[in-house]
Design brief:
heterodimer, A: about 190 residues, mainly alpha, about 75% helix, globular, B: about 190 residues, 8 helices
Chain lengths: ~190, ~190
Protein backbone atom coordinates (compact mmCIF):
# COMPACT_ATOMS: atom_id res chain seq x y z
CA UNK A 1 0.00 0.00 0.00
CA UNK A 2 1.45 3.30 -0.98
CA UNK A 3 1.73 6.47 1.04
CA UNK A 4 -1.15 8.18 -0.73
CA UNK A 5 -3.58 5.40 0.15
CA UNK A 6 -2.24 5.42 3.69
CA UNK A 7 -2.90 9.13 3.89
CA UNK A 8 -6.40 8.75 2.49
CA UNK A 9 -7.40 5.88 4.77
CA UNK A 10 -6.30 7.63 7.92
CA UNK A 11 -7.59 11.03 6.90
CA UNK A 12 -10.99 9.40 6.54
CA UNK A 13 -10.65 7.72 9.91
CA UNK A 14 -9.70 11.00 11.53
CA UNK A 15 -12.59 12.78 9.85
CA UNK A 16 -15.38 10.36 10.65
CA UNK A 17 -14.45 9.02 14.04
CA UNK A 18 -16.68 10.62 16.58
CA UNK A 19 -16.29 9.98 20.26
CA UNK A 20 -12.60 9.34 20.35
CA UNK A 21 -10.82 6.39 21.86
CA UNK A 22 -12.52 3.03 21.60
CA UNK A 23 -15.41 4.50 19.61
CA UNK A 24 -12.97 4.86 16.72
CA UNK A 25 -12.25 1.17 16.52
CA UNK A 26 -15.30 -0.06 14.56
CA UNK A 27 -14.82 2.54 11.85
CA UNK A 28 -11.11 1.78 11.78
CA UNK A 29 -11.78 -1.94 11.37
CA UNK A 30 -14.23 -1.26 8.53
CA UNK A 31 -11.76 1.01 6.77
CA UNK A 32 -9.01 -1.54 7.14
CA UNK A 33 -11.22 -4.19 5.61
CA UNK A 34 -12.33 -2.00 2.69
CA UNK A 35 -8.82 -1.04 1.84
CA UNK A 36 -7.24 -4.40 2.65
CA UNK A 37 -4.95 -2.88 5.20
CA UNK A 38 -4.85 -5.80 7.58
CA UNK A 39 -6.72 -8.96 8.51
CA UNK A 40 -8.61 -9.75 11.70
CA UNK A 41 -5.65 -11.33 13.44
CA UNK A 42 -3.38 -8.37 12.88
CA UNK A 43 -6.20 -6.12 14.05
CA UNK A 44 -6.44 -7.94 17.36
CA UNK A 45 -2.68 -7.48 17.70
CA UNK A 46 -3.30 -3.81 17.17
CA UNK A 47 -5.96 -3.83 19.86
CA UNK A 48 -3.61 -5.51 22.29
CA UNK A 49 -0.94 -2.97 21.46
CA UNK A 50 -3.30 -0.09 22.06
CA UNK A 51 -3.98 -1.39 25.57
CA UNK A 52 -0.35 -0.99 26.49
CA UNK A 53 0.53 2.25 24.85
CA UNK A 54 -0.34 5.60 26.36
CA UNK A 55 -1.83 8.42 24.34
CA UNK A 56 -4.61 8.48 21.80
CA UNK A 57 -5.68 5.18 20.31
CA UNK A 58 -6.37 6.54 16.85
CA UNK A 59 -2.93 8.07 16.75
CA UNK A 60 -1.21 4.95 18.04
CA UNK A 61 -3.05 2.84 15.51
CA UNK A 62 -2.05 5.18 12.70
CA UNK A 63 1.58 5.10 13.76
CA UNK A 64 1.52 1.31 14.07
CA UNK A 65 -0.11 0.67 10.71
CA UNK A 66 1.95 3.33 8.98
CA UNK A 67 5.17 1.92 10.39
CA UNK A 68 4.26 -1.67 9.58
CA UNK A 69 3.30 -0.71 6.04
CA UNK A 70 5.99 1.74 5.03
CA UNK A 71 8.47 2.24 7.82
CA UNK A 72 9.09 5.64 9.36
CA UNK A 73 7.75 7.63 6.38
CA UNK A 74 4.56 5.57 6.60
CA UNK A 75 4.23 6.25 10.31
CA UNK A 76 4.67 9.97 9.72
CA UNK A 77 2.16 10.12 6.86
CA UNK A 78 -0.47 8.08 8.67
CA UNK A 79 -0.10 10.01 11.93
CA UNK A 80 -0.28 13.33 10.16
CA UNK A 81 -3.31 12.22 8.13
CA UNK A 82 -5.27 11.09 11.17
CA UNK A 83 -4.82 14.34 13.06
CA UNK A 84 -5.24 16.71 10.12
CA UNK A 85 -9.08 16.79 10.28
CA UNK A 86 -8.85 17.58 13.99
CA UNK A 87 -6.50 20.46 13.36
CA UNK A 88 -8.66 21.99 10.63
CA UNK A 89 -11.92 21.67 12.52
CA UNK A 90 -10.52 22.90 15.81
CA UNK A 91 -9.13 26.00 14.15
CA UNK A 92 -12.52 26.76 12.63
CA UNK A 93 -14.43 26.12 15.85
CA UNK A 94 -11.90 27.97 18.03
CA UNK A 95 -12.07 30.97 15.74
CA UNK A 96 -15.82 31.21 16.23
CA UNK A 97 -15.51 30.47 19.94
CA UNK A 98 -13.12 33.41 20.36
CA UNK A 99 -15.16 35.71 18.19
CA UNK A 100 -18.57 35.03 19.69
CA UNK A 101 -17.51 34.00 23.19
CA UNK A 102 -19.04 37.05 24.77
CA UNK A 103 -22.31 36.86 22.88
CA UNK A 104 -25.46 35.89 24.74
CA UNK A 105 -26.15 32.92 22.51
CA UNK A 106 -22.74 31.34 23.07
CA UNK A 107 -23.00 32.07 26.79
CA UNK A 108 -26.36 30.36 26.85
CA UNK A 109 -25.05 27.38 24.93
CA UNK A 110 -22.09 26.83 27.21
CA UNK A 111 -24.18 27.35 30.33
CA UNK A 112 -25.84 24.10 29.30
CA UNK A 113 -22.74 22.36 28.01
CA UNK A 114 -20.70 22.84 31.17
CA UNK A 115 -22.94 20.82 33.49
CA UNK A 116 -23.16 18.16 30.75
CA UNK A 117 -19.37 17.93 30.84
CA UNK A 118 -19.54 17.27 34.58
CA UNK A 119 -21.98 14.42 33.90
CA UNK A 120 -19.67 13.22 31.14
CA UNK A 121 -16.72 13.14 33.53
CA UNK A 122 -18.75 11.21 36.06
CA UNK A 123 -19.60 8.74 33.31
CA UNK A 124 -15.90 8.45 32.49
CA UNK A 125 -15.24 7.40 36.07
CA UNK A 126 -17.58 4.51 35.42
CA UNK A 127 -16.10 3.59 32.05
CA UNK A 128 -12.46 3.66 33.13
CA UNK A 129 -13.52 1.95 36.34
CA UNK A 130 -15.03 -0.88 34.29
CA UNK A 131 -11.61 -1.75 32.93
CA UNK A 132 -9.75 -1.39 36.23
CA UNK A 133 -11.93 -1.67 39.33
CA UNK A 134 -15.17 -3.39 38.49
CA UNK A 135 -15.65 -7.05 37.98
CA UNK A 136 -18.36 -6.66 35.35
CA UNK A 137 -20.08 -3.99 33.28
CA UNK A 138 -21.78 -1.18 35.10
CA UNK A 139 -25.41 -2.22 35.11
CA UNK A 140 -27.87 -2.23 37.98
CA UNK A 141 -28.35 -5.98 37.70
CA UNK A 142 -24.62 -6.63 37.86
CA UNK A 143 -24.15 -4.45 40.92
CA UNK A 144 -27.01 -6.16 42.68
CA UNK A 145 -25.77 -9.57 41.65
CA UNK A 146 -22.18 -9.10 42.82
CA UNK A 147 -22.91 -6.85 45.76
CA UNK A 148 -19.75 -5.97 47.64
CA UNK A 149 -17.65 -8.17 45.40
CA UNK A 150 -18.42 -5.92 42.42
CA UNK A 151 -15.25 -3.97 43.13
CA UNK A 152 -11.97 -5.91 43.29
CA UNK A 153 -10.33 -5.41 46.63
CA UNK A 154 -6.68 -4.68 45.76
CA UNK A 155 -7.53 -2.22 42.98
CA UNK A 156 -9.95 -0.64 45.42
CA UNK A 157 -7.07 -0.02 47.83
CA UNK A 158 -5.09 1.55 45.01
CA UNK A 159 -8.10 3.67 44.15
CA UNK A 160 -8.56 4.98 47.68
CA UNK A 161 -4.86 5.75 48.07
CA UNK A 162 -4.80 7.59 44.73
CA UNK A 163 -7.95 9.48 45.70
CA UNK A 164 -6.40 10.67 48.94
CA UNK A 165 -3.02 11.50 47.41
CA UNK A 166 -4.61 13.66 44.74
CA UNK A 167 -7.68 14.97 46.53
CA UNK A 168 -6.15 15.76 49.88
CA UNK A 169 -2.43 16.14 49.27
CA UNK A 170 -2.66 17.46 45.71
CA UNK A 171 0.25 15.34 44.58
CA UNK A 172 1.22 15.60 40.92
CA UNK A 173 -1.04 13.23 38.95
CA UNK A 174 1.87 11.97 36.87
CA UNK A 175 3.63 10.77 40.01
CA UNK A 176 0.46 9.04 41.16
CA UNK A 177 0.13 7.27 37.83
CA UNK A 178 3.75 6.12 37.91
CA UNK A 179 3.55 4.87 41.48
CA UNK A 180 0.27 3.09 40.83
CA UNK A 181 1.73 1.53 37.70
CA UNK A 182 4.86 0.28 39.41
CA UNK A 183 2.85 -1.04 42.34
CA UNK A 184 0.45 -2.60 39.86
CA UNK A 185 3.27 -4.35 38.02
CA UNK A 186 4.04 -6.31 41.17
CA UNK A 187 0.69 -6.54 42.88
CA UNK A 188 -1.86 -6.83 40.12
CA UNK B 1 12.93 35.20 23.32
CA UNK B 2 9.75 34.92 25.30
CA UNK B 3 7.81 33.43 22.42
CA UNK B 4 10.25 30.57 21.85
CA UNK B 5 10.34 29.82 25.56
CA UNK B 6 6.58 29.44 25.71
CA UNK B 7 6.55 27.20 22.66
CA UNK B 8 9.06 24.87 24.30
CA UNK B 9 7.00 24.90 27.46
CA UNK B 10 3.88 24.00 25.50
CA UNK B 11 5.76 21.25 23.71
CA UNK B 12 7.08 19.63 26.89
CA UNK B 13 3.79 20.12 28.66
CA UNK B 14 1.88 18.16 26.06
CA UNK B 15 4.67 15.64 25.63
CA UNK B 16 4.31 14.78 29.30
CA UNK B 17 0.54 14.79 29.16
CA UNK B 18 0.44 12.52 26.14
CA UNK B 19 2.99 10.16 27.65
CA UNK B 20 0.99 9.64 30.83
CA UNK B 21 -2.57 9.73 29.54
CA UNK B 22 -3.65 6.16 29.99
CA UNK B 23 -7.30 5.31 29.64
CA UNK B 24 -8.55 7.74 27.03
CA UNK B 25 -9.65 11.34 26.71
CA UNK B 26 -11.10 11.80 30.18
CA UNK B 27 -7.86 10.60 31.74
CA UNK B 28 -6.14 13.52 30.05
CA UNK B 29 -8.18 16.05 31.97
CA UNK B 30 -6.57 15.74 35.43
CA UNK B 31 -3.13 16.10 33.82
CA UNK B 32 -4.24 19.13 31.81
CA UNK B 33 -5.77 20.81 34.85
CA UNK B 34 -2.65 20.21 36.91
CA UNK B 35 -0.27 21.51 34.25
CA UNK B 36 -2.23 24.17 32.36
CA UNK B 37 -4.49 25.59 35.08
CA UNK B 38 -2.73 25.00 38.39
CA UNK B 39 0.95 25.21 37.50
CA UNK B 40 1.27 27.37 34.39
CA UNK B 41 -1.96 29.31 34.81
CA UNK B 42 -2.41 29.61 31.06
CA UNK B 43 -6.14 29.03 31.15
CA UNK B 44 -8.95 28.87 33.67
CA UNK B 45 -10.81 25.72 34.66
CA UNK B 46 -13.91 26.93 32.81
CA UNK B 47 -11.96 27.38 29.60
CA UNK B 48 -10.52 23.87 29.93
CA UNK B 49 -14.00 22.47 30.51
CA UNK B 50 -15.23 24.22 27.36
CA UNK B 51 -12.23 22.86 25.51
CA UNK B 52 -13.06 19.34 26.68
CA UNK B 53 -16.68 19.73 25.57
CA UNK B 54 -15.64 20.95 22.14
CA UNK B 55 -13.02 18.20 21.86
CA UNK B 56 -15.66 15.58 22.63
CA UNK B 57 -18.04 16.93 20.03
CA UNK B 58 -15.90 17.22 16.95
CA UNK B 59 -14.42 14.17 15.21
CA UNK B 60 -10.98 12.84 15.92
CA UNK B 61 -9.35 11.84 19.15
CA UNK B 62 -10.19 13.88 22.21
CA UNK B 63 -6.56 14.09 23.24
CA UNK B 64 -5.45 15.62 19.94
CA UNK B 65 -8.44 17.97 19.70
CA UNK B 66 -7.88 19.24 23.19
CA UNK B 67 -4.15 19.77 22.67
CA UNK B 68 -4.67 21.73 19.46
CA UNK B 69 -7.32 23.92 21.09
CA UNK B 70 -5.26 24.69 24.16
CA UNK B 71 -2.05 25.19 22.18
CA UNK B 72 -3.80 27.63 19.91
CA UNK B 73 -5.40 29.49 22.80
CA UNK B 74 -2.10 29.93 24.59
CA UNK B 75 0.10 30.87 21.64
CA UNK B 76 -1.82 30.94 18.37
CA UNK B 77 -0.78 28.80 15.43
CA UNK B 78 2.81 28.24 16.64
CA UNK B 79 1.35 27.15 19.98
CA UNK B 80 -0.95 24.68 18.27
CA UNK B 81 1.95 23.25 16.31
CA UNK B 82 4.06 22.92 19.47
CA UNK B 83 1.18 21.17 21.21
CA UNK B 84 0.62 18.80 18.30
CA UNK B 85 4.28 17.83 18.13
CA UNK B 86 4.27 17.29 21.89
CA UNK B 87 1.22 15.06 21.71
CA UNK B 88 2.30 13.02 18.72
CA UNK B 89 5.90 12.30 19.65
CA UNK B 90 5.38 9.97 22.65
CA UNK B 91 3.00 7.80 20.60
CA UNK B 92 5.48 7.71 17.81
CA UNK B 93 8.45 6.79 19.95
CA UNK B 94 6.55 4.26 22.05
CA UNK B 95 5.14 2.44 19.06
CA UNK B 96 8.39 2.31 17.11
CA UNK B 97 10.23 1.06 20.18
CA UNK B 98 7.54 -1.34 21.32
CA UNK B 99 7.14 -2.90 17.93
CA UNK B 100 10.68 -4.19 18.14
CA UNK B 101 9.79 -6.11 21.27
CA UNK B 102 6.07 -6.59 20.68
CA UNK B 103 5.97 -10.30 21.34
CA UNK B 104 7.82 -10.10 24.63
CA UNK B 105 5.82 -7.17 25.91
CA UNK B 106 2.23 -8.05 25.09
CA UNK B 107 1.98 -10.98 27.47
CA UNK B 108 4.39 -9.77 30.08
CA UNK B 109 2.55 -9.76 33.40
CA UNK B 110 4.57 -6.84 34.74
CA UNK B 111 3.58 -4.66 31.82
CA UNK B 112 -0.05 -5.66 32.10
CA UNK B 113 0.05 -5.06 35.83
CA UNK B 114 1.57 -1.66 35.27
CA UNK B 115 -1.25 -0.62 33.01
CA UNK B 116 -3.87 -2.01 35.33
CA UNK B 117 -2.44 0.05 38.17
CA UNK B 118 -2.23 3.11 35.97
CA UNK B 119 -5.87 2.70 34.95
CA UNK B 120 -6.98 2.53 38.57
CA UNK B 121 -5.02 5.70 39.24
CA UNK B 122 -6.65 7.30 36.21
CA UNK B 123 -10.08 6.41 37.58
CA UNK B 124 -9.29 8.09 40.87
CA UNK B 125 -7.79 11.13 39.16
CA UNK B 126 -10.85 11.56 36.97
CA UNK B 127 -13.03 11.29 40.06
CA UNK B 128 -11.08 14.06 41.80
CA UNK B 129 -11.16 16.22 38.67
CA UNK B 130 -14.90 15.64 38.31
CA UNK B 131 -15.49 16.70 41.88
CA UNK B 132 -13.22 19.74 41.58
CA UNK B 133 -14.85 20.90 38.36
CA UNK B 134 -18.30 20.09 39.68
CA UNK B 135 -17.74 22.37 42.64
CA UNK B 136 -16.93 25.27 40.31
CA UNK B 137 -19.53 24.68 37.67
CA UNK B 138 -22.62 23.31 39.38
CA UNK B 139 -24.23 26.37 40.87
CA UNK B 140 -27.95 26.11 40.24
CA UNK B 141 -30.42 23.29 40.65
CA UNK B 142 -30.82 23.17 36.86
CA UNK B 143 -27.10 22.43 36.61
CA UNK B 144 -27.53 19.45 38.92
CA UNK B 145 -30.44 18.13 36.87
CA UNK B 146 -28.58 18.54 33.58
CA UNK B 147 -25.48 16.80 34.91
CA UNK B 148 -27.52 13.95 36.35
CA UNK B 149 -29.51 13.41 33.19
CA UNK B 150 -26.34 13.50 31.09
CA UNK B 151 -24.74 10.90 33.36
CA UNK B 152 -27.72 8.56 33.19
CA UNK B 153 -28.08 8.90 29.42
CA UNK B 154 -24.42 8.16 28.80
CA UNK B 155 -23.99 5.30 31.25
CA UNK B 156 -27.31 3.50 31.06
CA UNK B 157 -28.80 4.49 27.72
CA UNK B 158 -25.62 4.32 25.66
CA UNK B 159 -26.52 7.48 23.81
CA UNK B 160 -23.67 9.02 21.86
CA UNK B 161 -21.87 11.80 23.69
CA UNK B 162 -22.26 14.22 20.81
CA UNK B 163 -26.05 14.13 21.01
CA UNK B 164 -25.92 14.71 24.74
CA UNK B 165 -23.63 17.69 24.38
CA UNK B 166 -25.83 19.16 21.64
CA UNK B 167 -28.87 18.48 23.82
CA UNK B 168 -27.16 20.26 26.68
CA UNK B 169 -26.40 23.21 24.41
CA UNK B 170 -30.04 23.49 23.38
CA UNK B 171 -31.33 23.13 26.95
CA UNK B 172 -28.78 25.65 28.17
CA UNK B 173 -29.83 28.13 25.52
CA UNK B 174 -33.51 27.75 26.36
CA UNK B 175 -32.96 28.06 30.10
CA UNK B 176 -30.67 31.04 29.61
CA UNK B 177 -33.25 33.02 27.73
CA UNK B 178 -36.06 31.86 30.01
CA UNK B 179 -34.17 33.25 32.99
CA UNK B 180 -33.47 36.41 31.05
CA UNK B 181 -37.14 37.03 30.31
CA UNK B 182 -38.31 36.03 33.80
CA UNK B 183 -35.91 38.55 35.32
CA UNK B 184 -37.06 41.22 32.92
CA UNK B 185 -40.68 40.69 33.89
CA UNK B 186 -39.76 40.81 37.58
CA UNK B 187 -38.16 44.19 37.05
CA UNK B 188 -41.43 45.52 35.66
Amino acid sequence: MNLLTLFYVFFRIGLFSFGGGYAMLPFMYESFQSFNVMDAEEFSNLLALSQITPGAIGLNAATYVGYATAGVPGAIVASFAVILPSIIIIFIVAHFYDKYMKSKIVEGIFSGIRPVTVGLLAASIVFVGESSLFVADFTISNILEYGVRYISIIPLCFFIVALVLRGKFKINPIIIILVAGIAGAFLL
Amino acid sequence: MQKIKILWEIFFCFFRISLFTIGGGAAMLPLVIDAVVDKKKWMTKEEIVDSMAISNTIPGTIIVNNSVFIGRTVAGIPGAIAAILGVVLPSFICIVVIMQFLDKIIDNSYVLGFFKGALVAATALIAVACFGIGKDIIKKITDVVIALIAFVLIVFCNISIIFIIIGGAVVGLILYFLRFYINKRREK
